[in-house]
Fold these 3 entries.
Entry 1:
Amino acid sequence: MRIFPAPRPNERGFTFLEISVVVIIIGLMAVFVYPKLSGILAADDLRITALRLAGTINRVRDQAASTKRPHRLNYSLDANQVWVTVLSDDEFGDDASIFSGPKTLPDSVRFADVSTPQTGKVSGGETFTTFYPNGYADASAIHLEGTRGRIYSIIVNPLTGRTAIYDQHVEQRAIPDLSAE
């Protein structure tokens, strides 16, 4: 007794040549599609990093209000890292309540620059945004750049400490000094 029946004369399978041609076509398609797909994934890294950084900013603002102590979100533009410090005994020191140690941005994302009133536009080295217990914050514009030159901007509102995210380069608008009136 045969397990597989004998092929009928009108039934044909695929030849090795036909299967090879299909595999080559699929391989060529993959070669052309992969670079576009990796660009899409890098753009997602940039967007996700901007969202996470905005979330971190909101957490630092909330922590400053709840502990009634100024907090800083520090940026190392050269190392592509962020970390949190808190004012204690007239000096800013590490704060492990939000996250411990510096957090590094993904390899496909870097800081393009960070602008604050205290330091101006910084493209290298370190800078920070301070969040105060009353809900105020340093006006800040944080620009993240992806591998293909795409920019995301995170703008920190100085009066509320809240963030706005833009998928383009946006500068912090000047806020009039309300105490002068």
Entry 2:
Amino acid sequence: MKVRRTRLETLFDTYAKNLALVKQHPFIEMRPDLDDIVICPICLLYFDRNAIANHSITLEHIPPKTLGGKPRTLTCYECNKLYSPLDEHLRQAVSNKPFLEGLPGGSISVSVQMKDGPGFKATVEHVNAVDRTFLIKNNQKISQEHFEKIQQNLERRNAVEMTIRLRTLPKSSQSVNLVRIAYLLLFSTFGYGLIFHPNYIMLRKQLHNPKSEILPNWGLVEVDSQNFNNEFMGVNIIYHPSSICSFLIVFDLKTRSGIVSRHAVILPGPGRPNDSEIISSLQTISDEKSVNIKVYHVGNRSHGEEFAQPLLAYDIWQELNEKSEHTRVS
């Protein structure tokens, strides 16, 4: 009888083969040199096939599952668990954004405390942004007595005065999670051959310590439908101007209620081996209001031909750099 393989087993095979191909390169040396292993792309700890049974290696949904992600890669249990609360922060931020921007239909979940009477959990929704009309929907089961008290308070003239407590989420936790999503999308496209480059050391250090501010710039780009349409979805390479050659990763976050938020993150490529220089380049493009760029679109696929050619990212990068130099000279 043919045994059906799990998604975790299939991805383990895929990444183990990719790692084996990377190790064949004469300039790459790994210690310990073990066969049939995978490496967590965030902490760089290695795991053999027993990690599947003891659950020390896990499926990683990119983006997070609650934001429309699919299982695209593997991370270790500890790195996955580290981001569970940050995934919830990001989901709340995406869900709350339409309301905070005053868009009709935008809503938030809140705890409402009446000025004179019992409180209740509810959803507050923008009905009209012009006159700031809101619709308050009760979200919890309440007793008849509780309901009557709320109704009595609402019938009073001063009952409209209430306190809405909305949790403020740290901006840094959202930023580091967006960078993590972009990094893992890049990893699922090009594999180990790319992320072993020295330019990703500082980035991984930041991802492994999400509460610290290690990166001086997050590489987050302001997105609108005009500058990043669907043609940019997935991994792109900015090859001109040469001063900001980098990866541009564009992705959507989608809540279960249908709210969609598009994001773009710039990450260093396998170019200049100097972290401060790379970060300076990212600062330049993030600070500029308008930058004319030329982009090579890789796409949104994972585990494709790039995995069979584990150093293909370097070849593409070199070719685009030569193209950029030709553009500059001419």
Entry 3:
Amino acid sequence: MIPHKLFNSESDLSPTGLDQDSDAALIDSSVARAAEPAVLADSSPIPSASTADESSAESGGLTSSQVVSTAASNIVFSNTYGAGVTQAYINCITSAEQGIESLWTAPNSITIKVDFVGSVEGQNGDLATNSWPSWVTVTYAQLKSALASHEYSVYAQDAVAALPASDPNPAGGSDWYLPEAYARMLGLSSSTPSIDDTITLNTSYPWSYGQDVINTLEHEISEGAMGRVGGLGDQNGVWSTMDLFRFNSSGARDYTDGRDGETTYFSYNGGSALSSSAGLSFNNEYSGSNKVNPNDTADFTQLDVFGTGEAGEASTLSQTDIEMMDVLGWEPVASHVAPTLNVTSFSVAENTPKSESSFFSVSNPSGDNITQYSFLDEGSNGHFTVNGVTVPDGQSINVSPSNLGNVQYVGGSLPGSETLEVSVSDQTTGTTYSAILTATTTAPHIAPTVTAVSTVSVAENQSIAASSLIASISGSDSNLMMACENRGVRRKRISLK
């Protein structure tokens, strides 16, 4: 083991667009890695995730770029690999990104472009750093509104409910600075720079290239790529989202960065529950009037994925780490339930219309944005109509949600069965869900014709077979119940059931 090291992250640009010195440029975007007994996430490779090479260009036998995505998440990482990146490093990158994607998603698909490099910087330097090319500036009201529209977990809901009523940044105006990719996730930017974040691993340390590097990369990615940064007006001269969740031991908000001599903690619910219960406290750059370190203010000072780290350590994301990403507005994968398309095979009479609502429905518990419905008749018997217009067999027809009620299926002119396909397009997940059902056209019902024997002679109290009363039966129904009654004048009554 080596001594614990804090991680530092920086923006390539100051708020004015000018380079700053190293102290001023440091912005904390990580949280501590404390050894908590309740470990809820493992960053080992996720079997369901898929990776795809984006380019065949290789250097030293290694791919130069890669896309990492997981089916359950809207987060897609588009990676480029530069100098100092080995296959062992790439394996840890993939595992770290799959671990993030297994825990969080976004309301809409987001591609985060990350450049990875390795650098020999000695064992007195940081374990890793990350930098991003630009900030998105917003007002406190805009940030607060965006967080309110991204409260996907109980932690986020409590955090939004406890946000300050007024802007705590004394600068006022558009005084909140967000990394670009994070602002895109919140819907506060549409800009797509060529690189969202550059992460540099210090390869001087005796890494195992297992959980230690995975944790280090998750720490860095969560900052410039996912917005886990603060500043309090000190780092980079900015304020950012994590500054909203700093409290002292009394549960009061504390924006002093240590100038009041108080230890500060993370809280998702306005100071009622503090990270002190998990043994985690935020870094303060100041102790009274003295600046004591240039490290990230959103990092914990204890061993934790979002705090300090060391080569060879094997802890994983703590519950506190998970709460932090939730309050930033990232949606927990477990809280999102994909829409379910429910279909029922059916029968319909010849040339008879049947409303779409009678054979399919959509369950949408997470309120995903379903933008389109599609219908396909794969046979040649019946057909779909939209607003009364016939859709040719074999041709898929797309309709908007507002026009869905005007879709009907019309039975064929002859009996027979055919396959129908119904699909819904979910813009929230970028997924199309489809289901197959069978439509059966049935012949119209024709009552049977019964011809009775014209005359039957029977003696009083004599029994005769009921069948002797029927001359013939024609038609499809032959389930008959017959009764014969003879009273004085001879009468016959035949009942059909």
